[in-house]
């Protein structure tokens, strides 16, 4: 996310009662203003160079797969097994990584005072005049909230939260009408896991600058971390009302819509994400999942096949295409894709169960053929060997074993056996 431009105010005019000649005062003013501008530009460039992909202040909300409910309870649904989720969805949305390597501290940026002194030395001005100009520049910078805000961001990027908090507090003192200080304090509070304090600071920042996209987005991410999805959505929508092409806000709204099974809305939002970032594979995968849930199997297969061009060894993709083919009653194609997924991940319990379920469907179509019955038993037993705590699979194995031994001559396959 692109940060809002830092406002840089022009320094106030130099007082007339300091004893300096007017001509020298004019020259010094121009030089120091140029030095301050140069330092600000260097600082801004350095800040940009230390950014991560996406918003630098917070961990962006990651995709929430459609197999997760807000209360983290497992989702139960009648029908074929759900599609295996893929990608960086290893924990609750927005949980920070367990360990992040320390970031290198940014190199020191020359202050405007040092630059001004260097300019004056080049001009051959007396040391006393150079020192007076340097002191004047230092005083101006000490009273500049922009300069303290930049230094706070430097410290924050370097992981020095104590120093960053000190600078952001100074920003609040120097510019109480600005949101920058409260935004910085909120960022620090999030990193320290003081989420209630962060919410207070974000609220103050929003009250001061209600159209600040950076503040609104990060406030939404905070609510996502707290799993207050309704409030998170409201702030992401406010971001899009101001900046309609904001990628991360669109992505997070699509994730929340998927989480709540608002599939039509999720489909529109994932398509919007791909319009903004056509090469984003995780968004394309999520769109394929939504198409599958909507039983739009052709569109789902199209999305998964596009991913196979760059992920030819991804077992999840073959498994998902197999499910789509099975949904279209194309059992031969489904068997081919499930078998390929099984070759790539023979110890994947979900893939094994899907393969067994398909064999059971084929046995249902011709109960005289025991080939698929035996294959289903083999796969179900393998699944139980990997995870014995599967009541449905246990019941299926016991039922099919009775059929295999002839204990049940008229199996009611429409009931408990149907996958």
Instruction: Report the portion of residues in β strands.
Output: under 5%
Number of helical regions: 18
Rounded to the nearest angstrom, the distance between the terminal CA atoms is 45 Å
Largest sheet: none
Structural class, from helix and strand content? mainly alpha
Number of E strands: 0
Helix and strand pattern: HHHHHHHHHHHHHHHHHH
Radius of gyration: 31 Å
Shape: elongated
Question: What is the share of helical residues?
Answer: 55-70%
> What value does the average pLDDT take?
76
**Poorly predicted residue ranges:** 1-19, 46-109, 410-419
Structural features, described:
With 419 residues, this protein is mainly alpha-helical. The protein has a domain of 60 residues. Helices cover 63% and strands 0% of the residues. The longest helix has 28 residues. It is elongated, with a radius of gyration of 31 Å. The N terminus and C terminus are likely disordered.
List keywords for this structure.
419 residues, disordered C terminus, 18 helices, 63% helix, mainly alpha, 0% strand, elongated
Give the topology, please.
Blueprint: H1 22-49, H2 112-122, H3 127-142, H4 145-157, H5 161-174, H6 180-191, H7 195-208, H8 213-225, H9 229-242, H10 247-259, H11 263-276, H12 281-293, H13 297-308, H14 315-327, H15 331-344, H16 349-365, H17 371-386, H18 391-405
């Amino acid at each position: 996310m692109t940060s809002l431009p830092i406002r840089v105010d022009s320094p106030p005019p130099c007082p007339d009662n300091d004893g300096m000649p007017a001509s020298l005062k004019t020259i010094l003013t121009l030089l120091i203003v140029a030095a301050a501008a140069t330092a600000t530009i260097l600082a801004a460039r350095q800040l940009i160079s230390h950014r991560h992909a996406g918003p630098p202040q917070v961990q962006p909300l990651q995709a929430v797969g459609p197999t997760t409910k807000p209360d983290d309870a497992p989702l139960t649904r009648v029908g074929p097994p759900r599609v295996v989720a893929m990608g960086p969805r290893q924990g609750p949305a927005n949980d920070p990584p367990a360990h992040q390597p320390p970031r290198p501290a940014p190199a020191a940026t020359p202050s405007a005072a040092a630059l001004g002194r260097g300019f004056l030395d080049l001009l051959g001005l007396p040391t006393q005049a150079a020192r007076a100009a340097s002191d004047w520049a230092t005083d101006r910078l000490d009273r500049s909230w922009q300069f303290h805000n930049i230094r706070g961001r430097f410290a924050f990027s370097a992981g020095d939260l104590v120093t960053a908090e000190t600078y952001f507090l100074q920003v609040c003192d120097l510019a109480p009408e600005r949101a920058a200080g409260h935004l910085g304090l909120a960022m620090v509070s999030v990193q320290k896991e003081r989420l209630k304090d962060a919410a207070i600071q974000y609220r103050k920042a929003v009250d001061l600058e209600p159209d600040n996209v950076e503040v609104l987005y990060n406030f939404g991410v905070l609510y996502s971390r707290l799993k207050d999805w309704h409030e998170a959505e409201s702030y992401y929508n406010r971001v899009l009302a101001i900046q309609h092409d904001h990628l991360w806000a669109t992505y997070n709204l699509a994730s929340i819509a998927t989480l709540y099974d608002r599939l039509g809305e999720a489909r529109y939002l994932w398509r919007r994400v791909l319009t903004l970032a056509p090469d984003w594979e995780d968004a394309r995968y999520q769109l394929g999942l939504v198409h599958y849930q909507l039983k739009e199997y052709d569109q789902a297969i199209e999305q998964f096949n596009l991913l196979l061009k760059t992920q030819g060894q991804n077992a999840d993709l073959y498994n998902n295409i197999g499910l789509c083919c099975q949904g279209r009653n194309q059992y031969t194609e489904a068997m081919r894709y499930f078998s390929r997924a099984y070759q790539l991940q023979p110890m994947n319990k979900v893939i094994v169960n899907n393969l067994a379920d398909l064999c059971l469907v084929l046995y249902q179509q011709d109960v005289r053929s025991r080939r698929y019955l035996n294959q289903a038993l083999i796969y179900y037993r393998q699944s139980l060997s990997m995870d014995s705590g599967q009541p449905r699979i246990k019941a299926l194995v016991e039922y099919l074993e009775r059929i295999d031994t002839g204990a049940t001559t008229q199996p009611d396959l429409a009931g408990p056996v149907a996958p």
